[in-house]
């Protein structure tokens, strides 16, 4: 039986990956942080009491800022595969806590790689590093001839998060080259799901759309509506992580859908799923989105009601304007083909949030 260790197991991707590996027959270990309130909601459904027989999913307290604890856990479980998904992953928040992000997202990766080396596991333990499209920074001149970012495009990070992740990217490459480790970077473009953190823009939008339709919220305040992202589904993307560790040679791969959508278009798409048509007017900070038509009699929204407004508090000091990835290498070498596009991703998120808030309303 293969043994996997997941950092960030309580996060969006960690929870889907843990489910996926358990289904494949792995023994799965996860590192969770001690918190004053519960932070395991996304994995509670797969957790079983350690006193039961044959438990395949085990949690360990730990933190990427603590080498001693990482070394001890890795020594104890001798993993075949490590998935380093733990990170302070919010780009806007990284401007507020840049040193912490460097420590967790940057040096945290080094701590794991060093733990593998110190324990003499360089030929046994494979490692996946959660790299990101934020490395590219969205500079138009750095796209390839076909207009995409791919594995050869230059990096130019535009946030403390991106800068920390670029260190993690290169130190992973360096340990692969220096010590012959099986270490891979997945350069993943944005991926979302009903389990997406509530302050990332897609989830913020689908939650607000559901609440506004149900009369539980008045207005959704957003930042830059012109930014464009290449959005896929987390369930598809965690499979790519696993595939990267099953190859003959460790390599780095872009994982993306190859399509890009603006924040404004995503807002329109989300409300349209509920039968609510929006119309936008005004410029920059004065832009508003109003109800143009509502075809769903369940939702009582007056025509002309302003439900989308801009609050510059959500603008970033430096923005990544446009991301679009070329997944050709992953398609051909890994055989990875995503099942979701942005439309059915948005539909699934809306359906899940409507269900969630209908239940809240009834209680
Ligand atoms: P989430 O924010 O949902 O999850 C992050 C996880 O990291 C949580 O389990 C969190 O724990 C944990 N964590 C945070 N700080 C520490 C720390 N100091 N020590 C140990 N664990 C910590 O992120 P996602 O699941 O969306 O993303 C997974 C990884 O992929 C991240 O590294 C992210 O940067 C990267 N990525 C994500 C993309 C996306 O679009 N989702 C795209 C590209 C890369 P807790 O629950 O306690 O907060
Ligand atoms: P991103 O995701 O920064 O791409 O990082 P996020 O959803 O936070 O922002 C996407 C774009 O939406 C614009 N935006 C807003 N964003 C948020 N969060 N809240 C708002 O109100 C809002 N209004 C507009 C942003 O300016 C931005 O342009 C995600 C994270 O998962 C990273 O960890 C990961 O590495 C990258 O995706 C790929």
From TrEMBL:
Its cofactor is NADP(+). GO terms for molecular function: GDP-mannose 4,6-dehydratase activity. Residues 5-349 form the NAD(P)-binding domain. Its EC number is 4.2.1.47. The keyword Protein biosynthesis does not apply. It comes from the Bacteria. It is an enzyme of class 4 (lyase). It catalyses: GDP-alpha-D-mannose = GDP-4-dehydro-alpha-D-rhamnose + H2O. Keywords: Lyase, NADP. InterPro entries: GDP_Man_deHydtase, NAD(P)-bd_dom, NAD(P)-bd_dom_sf. Catalyzes the conversion of GDP-D-mannose to GDP-4-dehydro-6-deoxy-D-mannose. Belongs to the NAD(P)-dependent epimerase/dehydratase family. GDP-mannose 4,6-dehydratase subfamily. This is GDP-mannose 4,6-dehydratase. The lineage of its organism: Bacteria, Pseudomonadati, Bacteroidota, Flavobacteriia, Flavobacteriales.
């Amino acid at each position: 039986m293969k043994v996997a260790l997941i950092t960030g197991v309580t996060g969006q991707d960690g929870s889907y990956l843990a489910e996926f590996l358990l289904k494949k027959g792995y023994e799965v270990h996860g590192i969770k942080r001690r918190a004053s309130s519960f932070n395991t909601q996304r994995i509670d459904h797969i957790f079983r009491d350690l006193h039961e027989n044959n438990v395949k999913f085990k949690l360990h307290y730990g933190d990427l800022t603590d080498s001693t604890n990482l070394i001890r856990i890795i020594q104890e479980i001798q993993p075949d595969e490590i998935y380093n998904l733990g990170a302070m992953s919010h780009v806007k928040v990284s401007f507020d806590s840049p040193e912490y992000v460097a420590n967790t997202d940057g040096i945290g990766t080094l701590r794991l790689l060093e733990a593998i080396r110190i324990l003499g596991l360089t030929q046994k333990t494979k490692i996946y590093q959660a790299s990101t499209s934020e490395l590219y920074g969205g500079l138009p001149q750095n796209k390839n001839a076909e207009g995409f970012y791919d594995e050869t495009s230059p990096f130019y990070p535009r946030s403390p998060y991106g800068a920390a992740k670029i260190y993690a990217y290169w130190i992973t490459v360096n340990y692969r080259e220096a010590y012959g480790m099986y270490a891979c970077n997945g350069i993943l473009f944005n991926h979302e799901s009903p389990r997406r953190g509530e302050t990332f823009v897609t989830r913020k939008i689908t939650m607000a759309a559901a609440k506004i339709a149900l009369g539980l919220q008045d207005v959704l305040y957003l930042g830059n509506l012109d930014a464009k992202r290449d959005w896929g589904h987390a369930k598809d993307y965690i499979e790519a992580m696993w595939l990267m560790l099953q190859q003959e040679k460790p390599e780095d791969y872009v994982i993306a859908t190859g399509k890009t959508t603006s924040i404004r278009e995503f807002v329109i798409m989300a409300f349209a799923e509920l039968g609510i048509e929006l119309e936008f007017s005004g410029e920059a900070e004065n832009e508003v989105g109003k109800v143009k038509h509502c075809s769903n009699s369940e939702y009582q929204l007056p025509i002309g009601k302003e439900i989308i407004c801009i609050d510059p508090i959500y603008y970033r000091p430096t923005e990544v304007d446009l991301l679009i990835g070329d997944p050709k290498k992953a398609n051909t070498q890994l055989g990875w083909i995503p099942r979701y596009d942005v439309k059915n991703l948005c539909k699934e998120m809306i359906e899940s949030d409507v269900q969630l808030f209908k239940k809240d309303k009834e209680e």
